[in-house]
Amino acid sequence: MTRSVGRLVAESLAAHGADLLYCVPGESFLGLTDALVDVPALRLIVCRHEGGAAYMACADGRMRDGRAGVCLVSRGPGVSNAMIGLHTAFHDAVPMILLVGDIERRDRGRGALQEQDYRKLLADMTKAVIPVDLASQASEAIARAFHVAESGTPGPVAVILPEDVLDDPAEDVPLSRPRLRATPGPSSDTLDELAARLAAAERPVVYVGSAMDGPPERLDALRRMAEAWGLPVCPTHRRPHLFDADHPHHGGYIGNRVQKPLMDALREADLLVALGERMTDVVSQSYSFPAAPDPQVPFVHVWPDPSEINRVFRADLAIPADPHTVVEALLRRAPQAAPDRAAWIARLHGLHRDLTAPRWEPAPDGVNFAAVCVALAERLPRDAILTTDAGNFTSFVHRYVPFRTSNIFLGSAVGGMGAAVPMAVAGALRHPGRTSVAVVGDGGALMTGNEIATAMRHGVAPLILIADNGTYGSIGMHHANRYPGRPFAEAADLVNPDFAAWARAFGADGHTIATEADIAPVLDAALAPRERPAVVHVRASAQQVTAWRRRA
Questions:
Q1: Do residue 123 and residue 211 come from a single domain?
Q2: Cα distance between residue 368 and residue 550, in whole Å
Q3: Residues 232, 63, 352, CA angle at the centre, nearest 5°?
Q4: Do 396 and 480 lie in a common domain?
Q5: Does residue 158 sit in the same domain as residue 54?
Q6: Nearest residue to 429 (alpha-carbon basis) of 463, 452, 458, 406
Q7: How many other C-beta atoms lie within 10 A of the C-beta of residue 510?
Q8: 123 with 184: CB under 8 angstroms?
Q9: What is the Cα–Cα distance from 286 to 177, expressed in whole angstroms?
Q10: Number of C-beta neighbours around residue 91 at 10 A
C-alpha cells in the first residue's frame, strides 16, 4: 500500500516515544487507526468515554518523566467529552497530545456534521492548536506538538487532522525528528545568591511541586540536598510522593486547607523556596501564604518557564530552570556542615507526624473512612500506584497514607471529578507489575467508573476503593459554611447502586465494607494477587465530613 498521512502520523508518534494511545474509536480518524496495524510500537487502548481516555492520557503524561501522553478523539462530541482531561492537563502542567479527527476540508464553513472551530473552542485549555491541511505538514505538526507540550510549563496541545487528509499519499514526506528541548538553566551568580540565602536563613521552608516529579533516583537527590543544607521539605497539592513522609526533614503536606497548627508554624518562615511548584491558590492557601502579589516572606521561585515566574507572586529571586538542575547544583555547593536548624526542622516534622497519626473514632452512621485508609496504608506495597478523585474523602488519604518516593500518586490537582478510575487503569497499563489503587467517591465512580470495562478488555487489574456516603459531601460542607443553619437542597442526596454488584456485572471482583470489622478481611482479599479488577464498596459515614471534621 502507498504510505498515507495516517501512516506518517503513526510513524511520527512512534518516533517521539509514544507507545500507548488512548481513544474512543471514531470514523473521522479511521485513516490513523488503520495505519496502526503497520506500526507495532503503538498500542491502541480503546476506552468507553472520551473523558476517561483523556484522563488516562493525562495520567500517562504524569508517569513518563516529561514525555506527553496521547489521546485520539473524534470531532465535535468526542472533543467535547475530552475537555475535562484537557482542563486537567492545562492546569496541572502535564504534557499531553490530543489528536482530533476532523471533518473533510471541502465541508468547512458549511455547518457540516459536528463541525467546530477548534482554535476558538480550545484556546483557553491548550498551549497550541495545530491544524494539518496538507500531507507535507503532518509530521512537522506532530514534532511541533510534542515540543510545545513538553517545553517550558508543560501542557496539552491539540493537532487537528481532517478525515480526508489522513488518506492522502505521503510517500515523499520526510519524518520530522524529535526536537531537542531547550531548558533554561540557572546562572552561577543566581546559584550563589540562592546558596547565600539558604545559608543565612534561620527558618527556611522548601515547597516541592510538579516540575520536581520524576523517578525515585532523581528524587533521592532532593533528599540528599535537604540533608546537606539542613532544610525542611514540604510536598505540595497532589504531589505527596515527592518526599518520604517518614523522613525527619518532611515539613508537612501543603494541600488544600492545611491544618492551622502547621500553617501557623510555616508562617514563621524567613525564606520560602518554591522548587518546581508553579504556585496556585490551593498551595498558597487562597493567596495568603505567600500573599499575592507581594509575599510577606522572602520568596525564591524555581520553575522551568520564565513567563510563569512573577506572573502572580513577586519573587525576590527568580530562577527559570529545571528544578532538578538546581538541586544538583546545590549539592555541589553544599556546606561542609549543614546550618544548625535542627529545632526548626524537628518542630515542623513533629507537627506533621502529630497531624497524620493514625487516630480516629467510630462514626454513628457508617464506616469512618479513616479506618479504611489506615488499613490500606498498612497493606500497600512500597511501590504502589495510588490515584484519588476530587472530594472531601481525599483528605483521609492525605492524612493517613504515608507516601514515599517509591510510590506514584496520580490525581487532578485542579479538582476535576472522575479522574481516579481512569488514572488507575492508566497506571496499571503503564506499570503492569505494580499495584494500582483508585480511591474515589460515589459521585466520581459513576462519572468514569465505566472504564472498569477498559481494564477488563486490556487485561489489567486495578483496585477501586469507593467511599459511598450517599451525598456530594464537599458541596454540602461548602453550603453549610456559607449558609449556616439553612437546609441543603436535595441535590446533595444520591441514589447509588450496590457497587459490589455493579463491579461483578463488569466481570470484576466486588466486595463490601459495611462495618469496621469488615475492613481487614476485605482489603486482604481485594489486594491479593488477581487477574481482574476489584471494587471495594465502603458504606462510609456522611457525618464524618473530612478527615478533620465531623458534622454536628
A1: no
A2: 10
A3: 25
A4: yes
A5: yes
A6: 458
A7: 20
A8: no
A9: 43
A10: 17
Q: Which pLDDT belongs to residue 271?
A: 98
Q: Which CATH number do you get for residue 29?
A: 3.40.50.970
Whole-number Å distance between alpha carbons of 386 and 11: 33
Taking alpha carbons only, the member of 410, 442, 415 closest to residue 426 is 410
pTM: 0.96
- Residue 171 belongs to a domain: no
Residue 547 lies in a domain: no
Digit-coded pLDDT (tens) for 403-421? 999 999 999 999 999 999 9
Q: What is the DSSP-derived secondary structure letter of residue 173? A: P
Burial (0-12, 13-18, 19+ Cβ within 10 Å), 178:
middle
Written in H, E and C, the secondary structure of 24-73 is: CCCHHHHHHHHHHHHCCCCEEEECCCHHHHHHHHHHHHHHCCCCCEEEEE
Q: Nearest-CA neighbor of 234 among 285, 200, 306?
A: 285
- Note the pLDDT tens digit of each residue in 135-170: 999 999 999 999 999 999 999 999 999 999 999 999
Beta strands in 184-285 (DSSP E): 204-208, 233-235, 271-275
Dihedral sign for Cα atoms in the order 267, 272, 276, 280: positive
DSSP string of 507-527?
T-EEEEE-SGGGHHHHHHHHT
Answer yes or no: do 24 and 52 share one domain: yes
Q: Are residues 389 and 411 in the same domain?
A: yes
Residue 201 and residue 80 in one domain: no
- Full residue range of the structural domain in which residue 438 is found: 369-539
C-alpha triplet 207, 281, 246: angle, nearest 5°: 30
List the Cα angle 140/141/142 in 5-degree steps. 90
In a domain, 303, yes or no: yes
- Extended beta strands in 381-486, E state: 385-388, 408-410, 436-441, 463-468
C-alpha cell at 202: 534561620
Cβ–Cβ < 8 Å for 160, 118: yes
CA pair distance 72, 57, nearest whole angstrom: 9
CB 78 within 8 A of CB 100: yes
Average pLDDT, the chain: 95
CB neighbours of residue 459 within 10 Å: 11
525 falls within a domain: yes
Q: In this structure, are residues 56 and 34 in contact, taking their beta carbons and an 8 Å threshold?
A: no
Residue 489 is predicted with a pLDDT of: 66
Half-sphere exposure of 331 (CA within 13 A, CB side): 14
Residue 194 shares a structural domain with residue 287? yes
Cα three-residue angle 347-350-354, rounded to 5 degrees: 140
Structural contact between residues 368 and 362, judged by C-beta atoms closer than 8 angstroms: yes
- What's 273's domain CATH number? 3.40.50.1220
- Report CA-CA distances (Å) from 19 to 54, 464, 519: 15, 25, 38
Q: Check if the beta carbon of residue 73 is closer than 8 Å to that of residue 98.
A: yes
Beta carbons of 464 and 438 less than 8 angstroms apart: yes
Please report, as a single letter, which amino acid is at residue 250.
H
What's the domain count of the chain? Answer: 3
**Which of 309, 333, 355 is at the close of a domain?**
355
Residues 351 and 373 in one domain: no
